[in-house]
Amino acid sequence: MLIPQSLAYAELAGLPPYYGLYAAMLPPMAAALFASSPYLQTGPVAMTSLLTFGALAGLAVPGTGQYVALAALLALVVGIMRVGLGLMRVGWVAFLMSHPVLTGFTAAAAILICASQLPTALGSITIDGGLLERAGWALVHPTSWDAASVVLSFVTVLLVLGGRRIHTLFPGVLVALLASLVFSVVTSYGGPVVGAVPRGLPPFSMELPWNALPGLLFPGAVIALIGFAEATAISRTFAAQDRTAWDPNREFVSQGVANLASGISGGFPVGGSFSRSSVNRAAGGKTRLSGAITGLIVLAFLPFAGVLSALPAAVLGATVIAAVVRLIDLKTLVGFSRHSYPQTAIAWVTFVLTLALAPHIERAVLIGVGFAIAVHIWRELPVLVRSSYEDGILRIEPQGVLFFASAPAMSEAFLRELGKHPEAEQLVIDLRRLGRIDYTGALALKDVITDARSADLAVELRGAPSQAQRILRKVLPPEALKPP
Predict the structure, then answer these.
(1) String of DSSP letters for 24-61
(2) 102 and 280 in contact (C-beta within 8 Å)?
(3) What is the DSSP string of 264-280?
(4) Are 373 and 408 spatial neighbours (Cβ–Cβ below 8 Å)?
(5) Beta 41-43 vs 271-273: how paired, if at all?
(6) How confident is the model over 109-164, as pLDDT tens digits?
(7) Which residues lie closer than 8 Å to 67 by C-beta, 6 or more apart?
(8) In a 3-state reduction of DSSP, which class is residue 193?
């Protein structure tokens, strides 16, 4: 699976297809040295390839030597960031993308990936414009299609998707590659092909456009995090099924080292593949060596890579489409509305922005994450303050999360209730319904207690949450946590 997929994903990333072989050689071997999951297969993947194209398309012409060098430099940036995150043991940052953000982004990115490959799969000429515009033009101009390319693409999709129904291990991608290669040679296929493929090892070099490094830091950080989401999902799923431990920090390091290996060998950013990892596990892979052996096989194939020169480009486009079409999960997007309207908004905003901002989809992710955080803060902002008054005792009971943004609401509620009951002699603050209290929230409580005592009220604090005891002891006067 790796060889044909690596060719397809290299083209998706904007590089000549054979550069996918360079990204499929050393990275799996390097990742195997540090990986936490015994099943994870590393190499070119669709989402990371699309993010690579989005990061570099505005800096150089795809397919040129400058573009190739930038892709290798980007792989180094991704590698250094992932290794750094792993060594600092902050693997939790991989979970900053909420489920709605990830779902909306993934569905839209899958649409963009399919759109980018549609003209190639149809053998259609390309026009200037965005990914969706070119795909739309190709669809409505069937006279531009190449009949042989359409047939090859249809057969490829049928083999890949239909093969899964036959058996998990049915090598649909490999069968499609071999069959189309034979067809191309026998019939002297006249459509676009892979073209010349250099034989032998890649050009190991560190002569890269280092002056472009500052402009690659932000997209590199986005790829380092988003691209790791797939590896995280794979490893966690298999670890749960096997009832074994899994270390995200160690996996960050393994994926980082893999990208460093890709960068120095002329490749581009890589990640963990869900489809190849699933096949690896189903085939009986038990240890990290299965990934290393995969890389060794690609290395052994390089002297013979020239046989791929006659491979129809339409097959590569169809391979990508077949691999990602299942990620267009509109059903889940629509289903969010049954559970939460704010989360539905987050998912759809991310989805629409990803399509609108293509190819710079990393910006959509950043906005989506920011929107999700804003929604979270907005939902945590209101603090419901219940109150009651009886026999000179004013009781207030804040409910929610008492943090810097919600603290003023509690203070205002206290003053409002005190204004309603100026004859009150005692204030009881019941904290049992508070989930969390931060430093600003503790200071707000202190101010309420101080104001109440200045108004000659006896103050009693009850039910302080155990998780808030530490900060309250540091901020409040010692007698505040005890009955007066």
Answers:
(1) TTHHHHHHHTT-SSSS-EEE--HHHHHHHHHHHTTTS-
(2) no
(3) HTT----EEEHHHHHHH
(4) no
(5) antiparallel
(6) 999 999 999 999 999 887 778 888 999 999 999 999 999 999 999 999 999 998 88
(7) 14, 15, 56, 59, 60, 61
(8) strand
Q: What residues form DSSP beta bridges with 289?
A: none
Query: Longest C-alpha distance within the chain, in Å?
Result: 99
DSSP lists the bridge partners of residue 387 as 396
Q: How far apart are CA 259 and CA 43, in angstroms?
A: 9
For 410, counting Cβ atoms within 10 Å of its Cβ (0-12 exposed, 13-18 middle, 19+ buried), the class is: buried
Instruction: Examine the pLDDT at 483 and tell me if it is beyond 50.
Output: no
Identify any residues that bridge with 428 across adjacent strands, giving them in sequence order.
Answer: 395, 460
Rounded CA gap, 210 and 216, in Å? 10
- What is the per-residue pLDDT across 32-85, written as a single tens digit (0 to 9) for each? 999 888 888 999 999 899 999 989 988 999 999 999 999 999 999 999 999 999
Other CB atoms within a 10 A radius of the CB of residue 323 amount to 28
Contact 336, 343 (CB under 8 A): yes
Q: Are 326 and 337 in contact (CB under 8 A)?
A: no
Q: Which residues of 13-36 are buried (b: 16+ CB within 10 A; e: fewer)?
A: bbbbbbbbbbbbbbbbbbbbebbb
For residues 411 and 420, give the distance between their C-alpha atoms in angstroms, rounded to a whole number.
15
Place of tokens 């002329």: 266
User: Residue 103's CB: how many other CB atoms inside 10 A?
Assistant: 24
HSE-up (13 A, CA, CB side) for residue 314: 28
Residue 171's alpha-carbon distances to 5, 226, 275, 276, 283, in angstroms, are 12, 28, 12, 11, 11
Residue 158 token pair? 């049928």
Q: Taking a C-beta distance cutoff of 8 angstroms, is the pair 269, 46 a contact?
A: no
| Sequential DSSP letters for 393-442 | EEEEEEEEEESTTTHHHHHHHHHHHHHH-TT--EEEEE-TTEEEE-HHHH
Query: How far is residue 378 from each of residues 207, 345, 373, 381, 405, measured CA to CA in Å?
Result: 49, 13, 9, 5, 9
- Alpha-carbon distance of 103 to 98, in angstroms, equals 9
If we measure between CA atoms, which residue out of 210, 268, 261, 271 comes closest to residue 71? Answer: 268
How open is the CA angle 76-212-90, to the nearest 5 degrees? Answer: 40
Distance between CA atoms of residues 366 and 125, nearest Å: 34
**Is residue 45 within 8 Å of 113, Cβ to Cβ?**
no
Residue type, 216: L
d(CA 311, CA 288): 31
The SS3 call for residue 339 is coil
Cα–Cα distances in Å, from 142 out to 16, 111, 119, 213?
Answer: 27, 20, 11, 43
**How far is it, in rounded angstroms, from Cα 212 to Cα 71?**
11
d(CA 158, CA 129): 30
